[in-house]
Design brief:
Blueprint lengths: L5 E7 L6 H11 L5 E5 L12 E5 L2 E4 L4 E4 L4 H9 L7 E5 L7 H8 L2 H6 E11 L3 H7 L1 H8 L3 E5 L6 H14 L4 E4 L18 H10 L9 E2 L12 E2 L3 E9 L4 H14 L4 E8 L8 E6 L2 E6 L9 E9 L3 H9 L9
Length: 340
């Protein structure tokens, strides 16, 4: 059964990554879509002013049938206005400001009964500048947060860097967002890439990405390889945002799991960004998908394909994750006598 709610694609990325160019590409690529485009500042949107046919109260209609909204007020107020437009729109694009952590926008769509009833997140798309990514990750924590929250990463401006440097960037991105789909682009051209209607927040897709994740994955120690166009002293570092994966044969006790995960997310809401899981529970004959964004989480039956058997597989993305502590905690949740 298809989800009747309006899909929302959240586009994030630091200043200069190419988000406005990406927006224009998406509008041209999907002429059948009646987009509502939510911007922080209309003056920065970069959409041809000739497309604007009318405007009132911070909502502008474009000649191609799309709606453009300025976000000078509260996001919930803007969403309320969009709800009243009914079938005039069928997909929402939200561009976050370049210096912002996208978490606030994501949580706006995950909390509030009215918003959840009318909208659903399709995916979070992060656009990054290949030429400046390494430096920005060192100096701007927002860049690391944007990567950690993403379902799709577009590594843009790849024509400006050396192939060896590009390979290092791919490894670094996989460290912070190991389950995101990574695509390389120039000029934010996505004509060959599907980033709309991916349903990355749907239970089936979450479960599929967890199955695909290598639970033996360890955080990478990355040595910067600088592009030949300039020289800097190479250095080795481990970024504060990492991912940790765990896989256990058997099933969790559902009461232990619920009690632990709620407390864990509450007390670590500032450091744990996302958690995804595909788990068996004792007494249930079906797998369940778990997905958490900070303190907000969902648990639902997994509708995808699975070869069978009991499995508990969890992936955590956040700051300064303690692998040993997580391992011990998850083992305590397995069905059977509590480990001594």
């Amino acid at each position: 059964m298809s989800d009747p709610r309006l899909p929302v694609t959240i586009i994030t990325g630091f200043l200069g990554a190419g988000k406005t160019t990406l927006l224009n590409h998406l509008i041209k690529k999907h002429p059948d879509k009646r987009f509502a485009i939510i911007e922080n500042e209309f003056g920065d949107i970069g959409i041809d002013g000739a497309l604007i046919v009318e405007g009132s109260d911070s909502i502008f209609e474009l000649s191609n049938g799309c709606i453009c909204c300025t976000l000078n007020n509260d996001l919930n107020d803007t969403l309320t206005k969009l709800m009243a437009m009914g079938e005039r729109i069928n997909h929402i694009l939200v561009e976050t400001t370049g210096i912002a952590d996208p978490l606030t926008v994501v949580q706006s769509f995950l909390t509030g009964e009215a918003v959840q009833r009318y909208f659903r997140i399709d995916s979070v798309v992060c656009l990054v500048d290949a030429e400046h990514l390494a430096d920005l990750m060192e100096s701007e924590p927002e860049v690391r947060n944007q990567l950690a929250m993403s379902d799709v990463v577009l590594l843009n401006k790849t024509d400006r860097v050396h192939a060896d440097y590009l390979a290092t960037l791919r490894k670094t991105i996989s460290q912070m967002s190991p389950m995101a789909m990574l695509h390389e682009t120039t000029f934010a051209d996505v004509s060959h890439i599907d980033i709309i209607d991916t349903n990355a927040y749907g239970g089936r897709q979450v479960g599929t990405t967890v199955l695909r994740f290598d639970a033996t994955h360890r955080p990478l120690v990355v040595s910067n390889v600088m592009a030949p166009a300039f020289e800097k002293k190479a250095h080795t570092h481990r970024h504060d945002i990492t991912s940790e994966g765990f896989e256990f044969a058997g099933s969790f006790d559902i009461q232990r799991f619920n009690a632990w995960i709620q407390g864990f997310l509450y007390f670590n809401s500032n450091t744990v960004y996302r958690v995804k899981g595909l788990v068996s529970f004792a007494g249930y004959d079906q797998l369940f998908v778990f997905h958490a964004v900070r303190g907000t989480f969902m648990l639902e039956k997994y509708e995808g394909n699975f070869p069978g058997g009991e499995i508990c597989k969890m992936v955590f993305i956040g700051k300064f994750l303690d692998r040993e502590l997580l391992q011990n905690s998850l083992e305590q949740l397995l069905d059977g006598p509590m480990p001594g």
